[in-house]
Design brief:
The chain is mainly β and about 625 residues long. It is built from 1 helix and 48 strands. The protein is flat. It comes from Apodemus speciosus (Large Japanese field mouse).
Length: about 625
């Protein structure tokens, strides 16, 4: 009986295992249901089974087209690889798995697309202001084109978009484009032109495949306003030099080319630089010179005629007139004959005054030296050069000045808030003082300005100044007081000579009315402690000084602290105590009457003010004391 039962149990176990195994045979495919791949990429489909140790696999398309891929099977998995993906792979694929007598199939749809490159932007020509241009946005090797959308943006503005829904006809890679014509303006420079290609593959993914190309716009203008400047002149002498500079406006900046026009009108290229310099010129260098501005849009030209003449005999004086020198300086005037080998050179003043200088001549050059210039050297000097029978003169003006020291700032007293103060700004040893100007500034504000035009009488060194009174405030602290002296040289120099002095303002504030606190009271029993505390505001912070007023009215100094303390008062401590707030701007004073009573005395307290100026400080007094009257 037990043996039979074991056999029955073993047979039922085998049946159950076979039943469970047949129930577990399953097939899966990855990706599931549907996938998409770009033409040229590699893609794999994986078919796998469970519940079968040695399944067999087969792959086919639903329309029995070639697989266009390689199958690799290993164990319970089979992989179909398409590399590269092409049009032949756009099918529904079926994977069949067989296990013993069982057979399972699973299908997957493979869609393909192509958008391999960023779109391209093409222009019909360079972007020129005011000239229409065609811009083309191209997408190459696209599939399927019926799902393509092209967009063209300038900045954030959509210029045009286009879809190609109706154009799907065959399986092939197509190039599609859209075109826009617009007229560039100069404000377009720097803007971004964006060509965006979108491939909408809605069935697979709601987000389209997208590629974009961006170009920054550069708008050009044809060369214009081409101009030539010539230094020193268009009429020159042999041996001289000339510099000609050409400029031309345009975008991109035009290149500059210089040509010389021949007698038959042919242009001979001379230079590709904006500046053309000709040295040691000869008479044959005379002619018409042409400047041409050229960029990729166009060209613009202008011309100038140079005339080179025979070199004459000339006189040159250095330094060039006018010459300015400070009293005591050394000055050397040099006169040279140019174009004459053996000249005769002489010096004189325009007023026939003495030269008061040393003359030295050598060859074609002569110098007049003043070792220490003074007022007697302030003249116009003439250099006369005689060559053969011709005499030429050249004049140089020598001007004298004195401006050797910085101005000085002086105050009439301490700067105190609300108290007038007088400021003196003086400039010593000035000449010529009719050219002198003095400004007094507080911060950026001009307080006073003075010229001395009418005061020049004699040639002498003078000290000049200005004076003004102003009322300082605390807001002036930290500001700079500036005394600025300018010596205007008239025609001698374009800018005046300047000297200045500065002083930082620190405005003091006199102590405010002192305040006294008495703790616990100004009327006390003998032996009681008391604190007298005093405060006063000011700048700088006032020093506090406590004193006791003597019978003769004089003050006896007691303490330099804010609080005067009596640890145990005595009858003789009664009296008037004076607090003083002191700084360099002033003194504030206040007093308090301290009353010390004997222990046997009866107190009758009366609340009375100490004095009219102290109505906020109340004290107690007894009938035997003479209480101060209320004002």
């Amino acid at each position: 009986m037990p043996v039979k039962m074991v056999a029955i149990f073993g047979a039922s176990t085998v049946l159950w295992i076979l039943f469970a195994a047949s129930q577990a045979f399953k097939i899966e495919i990855s990706p599931e249901h549907r996938t998409i791949a770009q033409i040229g990429d590699s893609m794999s489909l994986t078919c796998s089974t469970t519940g079968c140790e040695s399944p067999s696999f087969s792959w086919r398309t639903q329309i029995d087209s070639p697989l266009s891929g390689k199958v690799r099977t290993e164990g319970a998995k089979s992989v179909l690889t398409m590399d590269p993906v092409g049009f032949g792979n756009e099918h529904s694929y079926l994977c069949t798995a067989t296990c013993d007598s069982g057979k399972l199939e699973r299908g997957i749809q493979v869609d393909i697309y192509s958008l391999p490159k960023d779109p391209e932007i093409e222009f019909s020509g360079p972007l020129e202001v005011g000239k229409p241009v065609v811009v083309k946005c191209l997408a190459r090797d696209v599939y399927p084109v019926d799902r393509l959308e092209l967009e063209l943006f300038k900045g954030d503005r959509l210029m045009k978009n286009q879809e190609f829904l109706e154009e799907m006809a065959k399986k092939s890679l197509e190039t599609k484009s859209l075109e826009v014509t617009f007229t560039p303006v100069i404000e377009d420079t720097g803007k971004r032109l964006a060509c965006r290609a979108k491939l909408h593959i809605d069935q697979i993914d709601s987000k389209p495949e997208e590629k974009q190309t961006v170009k920054e716009l550069q708008v050009y203008t044809s060369p214009t306003n081409t101009e030539i400047s010539v230094h020193p002149s268009t009429r020159l002498h042999e041996g001289g030099a000339v510099t000609m500079t050409c400029s031309s406006e345009g975008l991109p900046a035009p290149e500059i080319f210089w040509h010389k026009k021949s007698d038959n009108g042919v242009l001979q290229l001379l230079s590709g630089n904006a500046t053309l310099t000709l040295i040691a010129m000869r008479m044959e260098d005379s002619g018409i010179y042409v400047c041409e501005g050229v960029n990729l849009i166009g060209k613009d030209s202008t011309e100038v005629e140079l005339i080179v003449e025979e070199k004459p005999f000339t006189v040159d004086i250095s330094p060039r007139s006018p010459v300015t020198a400070q009293v005591g300086d050394s000055v050397v005037l040099t006169c040279a004959a140019v174009g004459c080998d053996s000249p005769s050179i002489s010096w004189r003043t325009e007023t026939e005054s003495p030269l008061n200088g040393d003359v030295r001549s050598e060859g074609a050059k002569s110098t007049l030296t003043f070792n220490s210039v003074s007022f007697e050297n302030e003249h116009s000097y003439l250099c006369a050069v005689t060559c053969l029978r011709r005499t030429l003169e050249k004049k140089v003006q020598v001007g004298i000045y004195s401006f050797s020291e910085d101005p000085k700032i002086e105050m009439s007293g301490l700067l105190v808030h609300g108290r007038p103060v007088t400021v003196n700004c003086t400039v010593p040893n000035v000449y010529p003082f009719d050219h002198l100007e003095i400004e007094l500034l507080k911060g950026e504000t001009i307080l006073m300005n003075k010229h001395f035009l009418e005061e020049m009488g004699t040639k002498s060194l003078e000290t000049k100044g200005l004076e003004m009174t102003f009322i300082p405030t605390t807001e002036d602290t930290g500001k700079m007081l500036v005394c600025l002296a300018k010596l205007h040289s008239g025609e001698m120099e374009s800018e005046p000579k300047q000297r200045q002095s500065t002083q930082t303002l620190y405005v003091n504030v006199a102590p405010s009315e002192a305040t006294i606190w008495v703790s616990p009271s100004s009327v006390l029993e003998e032996g009681s402690p008391v604190n007298l505390t005093c405060s006063s505001d000011g700048f700088p912070a006032p020093q506090i000084l406590w004193s006791r007023q003597l019978d003769n009215g004089e003050l006896q100094p007691l303490s330099e602290t804010t609080t005067l303390t009596f640890m145990s008062t005595k009858l003789e401590d009664s009296g008037v105590y004076v607090c003083e707030g002191i700084n360099q701007a002033g003194i504030s004073r206040k007093s308090v009457d301290l009353i010390i009573e004997g222990l046997s005395e009866r107190h009758t307290a009366y609340s009375l003010p100490i004095e009219e100026s102290k109505r906020d400080n109340w004290v107690s007094c007894t009938p035997r004391e003479m209480c101060p009257k209320r004002g």
